[in-house]
Design a protein that fits this description.
2 copies of one chain form a homodimer. The first copy, chain A, contains 10 helices and 12 strands. Chain A is α/β, with parallel strands linked by helices. The first copy, chain A, has a 5-stranded mixed sheet, with helices on both faces.
């Protein structure tokens, strides 16, 4: 019994984020950050705003940022919610659509924050296994539930679900909300945004932490029907009116406005990814087909856990999940061309030594 | 029935923050912002951080900020939690200490976000009336509850509760958490921080939005026993690992480090407050004794609601709460010396016209 702790958190096991090293300098391929700096326009906007105006509250509705997103994606401002990173947006969405005692469905291998949210908010989970090839078990995501949560492309596998399959899930669950977490969609994936007009039960969540190189600014957003967006706003305004600070609002808006820089840096990450995949395959790695800014890899005879520890010794951080089915895989974020060349060289050495 | 909305938010009435005008230029005395700019050292730290490093996640534990607070307040880092504004800190604290179906006690006239949190998180409220002179009803805050929440100095009255009375509340509720929200304490109030050593059930919440002139940066924090701080971290890490962005962490830390600027600007606000109180009393206003950066005023014959509307016409925003017992009061934030001279001039005109 934890004295003074409420019943809702007595048995809670929080999410563990990837390591943020403070002392030593690592090649950091463990938290799916973008290796390229944020758009110069985003930085310029932040510098311009960082003055006397910080004494005033930020706009609780983040209108400037929603306008920029509206323009970039061709979706009405009323269908856009902005928040303090997509983790917060997801936490609000869970509370907005899933009641205490409801049951939501998601795969066994996906973003490991979902079961934590569910436990936190008193929601039951029906966890369905991915197919043997790590693709989505579409039939198991349909019917007899109070909500569905899908990461697409999925994490940590990087595998994309087809739009046809997504339509099946949306049509098979017309009375509950289907959350599609598109944190990684900008690295070659196909967004569900064009489906918004057809499906009032679709919520698409995205983030500036990966493709916009702004993990340190904390900006996430959601697109959905006006009704779904009103529900998230109801939750947000019952918890914290001002979730986005002034710098995040202007910086995020400027980043969204700089389409050219966004496309260029995303392309660079994808090109490096393909070269890395090629080299790793030559070293005997299985590499799942990735549409994200990371790859999920497993070697034919060197255990992932061993490689994980050895890479750390060599000054390279990657992510290892000690969980059934994926405990012989490593998730490796795509860094710069140079970082990935070093990573492949080190991998080559480690595989040869084994 | 709101389609797709969860049962927990079907009947929720969110908090309404004070107006943030976008079009017209007002003298803005409605949201208790500080009229002076943030510390130049805070702005300098933000400019220094606003570069390539924003591509990386922020420190989920906000160590740099907690170190600065630890040094400034002489309290161990392990006893400090930092979050995205004190509203978020309070929301996490409610979830950390108060379970579904628990009953918490707070006064009828206080920060109007408390009943919203309670409704959001399934907590029952026992709302006890302030005494007729708007002081705290100490006896009613003791016993037979699962938690107590006090704003001290109280809002929107500005009245401070004595440390002796606070001790009575803490001692009368040894098995539940007493949250003391000190958003306004730096304008002449006495903090409960020295009581932390004696009372393991005390959580003190503060913010940088008022006395540190950083409402637009979103930084709040809590001090408590290690055990209470661990509980809030458990909630935070089950909702959003990275609540503070990189700019808020460094800006907040630098602001806390600039003690001289902090003391100077707080003194200026207090001096202007006293001069304003004097003039308003001469105009026939009752002014509650304030230890905060706002005053709560009521005129002997001009209705507050009328003055509120007239002030807006004159380009001055103040806050009016259309609630029993206080619907003939206005809450007026203390602005610059010049703003308050204008405010008093306009009030003089309005009172004469009535």
């Amino acid at each position: 019994m934890k004295k003074y702790w409420s019943s809702r958190i007595q048995n809670l096991v929080p999410y563990t984020p990837g390591e943020q090293p403070k002392d030593r300098k690592f090649i950091k391929l463990n938290t799916n950050e973008n290796p390229y700096p944020p758009s110069p326009k985003a930085l310029e906007a932040i510098h311009k705003e960082a003055g006397e105006s910080l004494r005033l509250y930020s706009d609780p509705e983040g209108v400037a940022l929603r306008k920029a997103l509206s323009k970039a994606y061709g979706i009405s401002e009323k269908q856009i919610f902005v928040g303090n990173g997509s983790d917060e947006v997801l936490a609000f969405a869970f509370q907005a659509y899933f009641g205490v005692g409801d049951t939501i469905v998601f795969p066994d291998i996906t973003y490991s924050f979902y079961p934590v949210y569910a436990e936190m908010f008193g929601i039951n989970c029906e966890i369905v296994p991915l197919n043997d090839d790590f693709t989505m078990p579409i039939d198991k995501l349909i019917g007899n539930n109070n909500g569905v949560v899908i990461t697409n492309p999925n994490a940590p596998t990087g595998i994309e679900m087809s739009q046809q399959d997504l339509r099946r899930v949306l049509e098979g669950n017309p009375d509950v909300v289907v959350i599609v977490d598109e944190a990684y969609v900008d690295f070659g994936g196909t967004s569900a945004l064009p489906l918004l007009e057809e499906y009032p039960n679709l919520l698409v969540v995205q983030t500036m932490s990966k493709s916009r190189s702004l993990a340190g600014l904390r900006v996430g957003y959601a697109f959905g029907s006006e009704n779904l967006i009103q529900a998230i706003n109801c939750v947000k305004n019952s918890i914290n009116s001002y979730t986005l600070d002034r710098l995040a609002i202007v910086g995020g808006a400027a980043a969204v406005g700089d389409q050219e820089y966004f496309e260029k840096t995303c392309s660079m990450v994808m090109e490096t990814r393909e070269r890395t995949v090629q080299r790793l395959k030559e070293l005997g790695f299985q590499v799942l087909p990735s549409k994200s800014n990371f790859i999920f890899i497993s070697h034919e005879f060197v255990p992932a856990k061993k490689l994980f520890a050895q890479l750390r010794e060599e000054g390279i951080l990657v992510r290892y999940f000690d969980k059934p089915r994926i405990n012989n895989f490593l998730r490796v974020s795509i860094g710069t061309e140079e970082d990935m060349a070093t990573f492949c060289d080190v991998m080559e050495k480690l595989v040869r030594q084994s």
